[in-house]
Design goal:
Structural class: mainly alpha
Number of strands: 2
Low-confidence stretches: none
Order of helices and strands: HEEHH
Largest sheet: 2 strands, antiparallel
Strand order of the largest sheet: 1-2
Radius of gyration: 21 Å
Mean pLDDT: 85
Shape: elongated
Distance between the termini: 44 Å
Length: about 90
């Protein structure tokens, strides 16, 4: 009788982990399906290049702190925001 709670817990954990296995968001571009996160990442990198252009133009790049930390964080920020705005 002690196996029943363990088995029930295993079934509950499996069901909880499989609930996210729905349709993956994909975008059809010229007949090929791309994952939505890849599109968001590409646009996020492009937006960071735009931010860098404006920082260089107004001579503010020295004010943002360590650049090796700032630019990857900006890419993550833009990618996450695009994902939330467009796909959620």
């Amino acid at each position: 009788m002690k196996m029943a709670p363990i088995r029930l817990g295993f079934v509950a954990a499996t069901c909880a982990l499989l609930t996210g296995c729905g349709r993956a968001p994909a975008i059809d571009i010229v007949g090929s399906f791309f994952p939505a996160w890849m599109i968001c990442l590409t646009v996020g990198v492009i937006l960071v290049f735009v931010v860098r252009y404006f920082l260089l133009r107004y001579r503010l790049e020295t004010e943002v702190g360590p650049l090796a930390l700032f630019y990857p964080c900006a890419v993550i920020l833009f990618t996450s925001l695009l994902w939330l705005i467009i796909f959620r």
